Amino acid sequence: MTLAPEALRSLVGAGDDCPCRLAVVNSCHGEAAGLAFAEAGVPHVVAVRGADGRLSDRAAIAFCRSFYLAAMAGRTVRQAFDIGTAAARQVAPP
């Protein structure tokens, strides 16, 4: 089932206060969903953005594993993102 960005924004932003503090959209074309989360008031959004919107499964797994481990270790969202990005680049084709 696909959820349109407008519907996602409406669902997440319903009510007075956005309950979600972090959204990670780890898919090839996640930019629209990421923007919908941000527009709904989610303060930290991580999503794939790029000219071709491509993301290999191996790179996605490496990013998530490193991102979540860094976040659980107490790193900031920015630090966890940078660590995840570095891990994804190690497995991505040149």
Share of β-strand residues: 5-15%
Radius of gyration over C-alpha positions, nearest whole angstrom: 14 Å
- The residue-averaged pLDDT reads 83
Q: Whole-Å distance between the termini?
A: 33 Å
What's the number of extended β-strand segments? 2
Main sheet specs: 2 strands, parallel
> What percent of residues adopt helix (DSSP H or I)?
40-55%
Question: Which characteristics define this entry?
Answer:
9% strand, two-stranded parallel ribbon, 94 residues, 51% helix, mainly alpha, flat, 2 domains
Task: Describe the model.
With 94 residues, this protein is mainly alpha-helical. The protein folds into 2 domains: 1-53, no CATH class; 56-94, no CATH class. The chain is 51% helix and 9% strand. A two-stranded parallel ribbon has the order 1-2. The termini are far apart.
SSE topology:
Layout (H helix, E strand, L loop, with lengths): L4 H8 L9 E4 L5 H9 L4 E4 L9 H16 L4 H15 L3
Parallel strand pairs: 1-2
Helix pairs in contact: 1-2, 3-4
Summarize the structure.
With 94 residues, this protein is mainly alpha-helical. The chain contains four helices and two strands, in the order H-E-H-E-H-H. A two-stranded parallel ribbon has the order 1-2.
